[in-house]
Design brief:
The structure is a single chain. This protein has 173 residues and is of the alpha+beta class. It has one domain: Gcn5-related N-acetyltransferase (GNAT) (Aminopeptidase, 3-Layer(aba) Sandwich). 35% of the residues lie in helices and 30% in strands. It has a 7-stranded mixed β-sheet, with helices on both faces. The two termini are 30 Å apart. Bound molecules: coenzyme A (COA). Coenzyme A binds at residues 23, 27, 97-99, 104-105, 109-110, 132, 136-139, 141-142.
């Protein structure tokens, strides 16, 4: 099974919108009301919104593909707006790492994680940080395997009217 990682172009907006909606839905369905879910999917993952992000050259989006089909994606950016404490370092926010559920446990996520870590080492980042839902134990376990730790800081990540709390995890390089 050959996994290819490639940076996305504007022409990938429709495919990115589709995989973003699918993976977010599969991860968080049942943790909020159906209305909150639908509004969230439409607000954050509509094609126009993701096209705007793809147009920002600082916003780094990559697909993991098998036979030219996206099976997971990665988004990272040097953006301190969500966690200003990180300005103390040259820090990268790993904004999203999402893999289609039928490909969990198959090495896709590892490939994506290795990719972002290698990128950050190469570009001399000091730390990578990310938000993970307090009850997303699989993702937390995955991050811990890569040496991420709970920073002890949290932030609110409501899905519509449903309150949720994320932990900020970080990994110093
Ligand atoms: C998070 C994600 C990228 C990890 O990729 P993956 O291929 O599933 O990761 P792995 O299988 O290598 O690692 C997951 C680990 O969690 C463990 N695990 C599985 N279910 C678990 C659970 N309910 N509780 C705790 N640990 C769990 C697995 O056993 C594995 O650990 P191991 O390798 O020591 O056995 C992937 O699951 C995913 O895309 N999830 C949905 C989207 C998501 O949650 N993204 C992160 C948002 S912050």
């Amino acid at each position: 099974m050959e996994i290819t990682i490639r940076r996305l172009k504007l022409a990938d907006a429709a495919a990115l919108s589709a995989i973003s909606k699918k993976t977010f839905y599969d991860t968080f369905t049942g943790t909020c009301t159906p209305d909150d879910m639908n509004i969230f999917l439409e607000n954050y993952f509509n094609e126009r919104q993701v096209a705007k992000e793809l147009n920002n050259t600082d916003d780094l989006y990559f697909f993991a593909e098998i036979d030219n089909r996206p099976v997971g994606y990665l988004r990272f950016m040097e953006d301190y707006s969500n966690f200003p404490l990180m300005k103390k370092w040259k820090a990268m926010e790993l904004k999203r790492i999402y893999v289609l559920k039928e490909f969990h446990g198959k090495g896709i996520a590892q490939k994506l994680m290795d990719f972002v870590i290698d990128y950050c080492i190469e570009e001399k980042y000091q730390v990578i940080w990310l938000g993970v839902w307090e009850n997303n134990l699989r993702a937390q376990k995955f991050y811990e395997k890569y040496g991420f730790e709970n920073s002890g800081h949290t932030h609110d990540f409501p899905i519509g009217h449903t309150p949720q709390t994320d932990y900020w995890f970080w990994k110093f390089l």
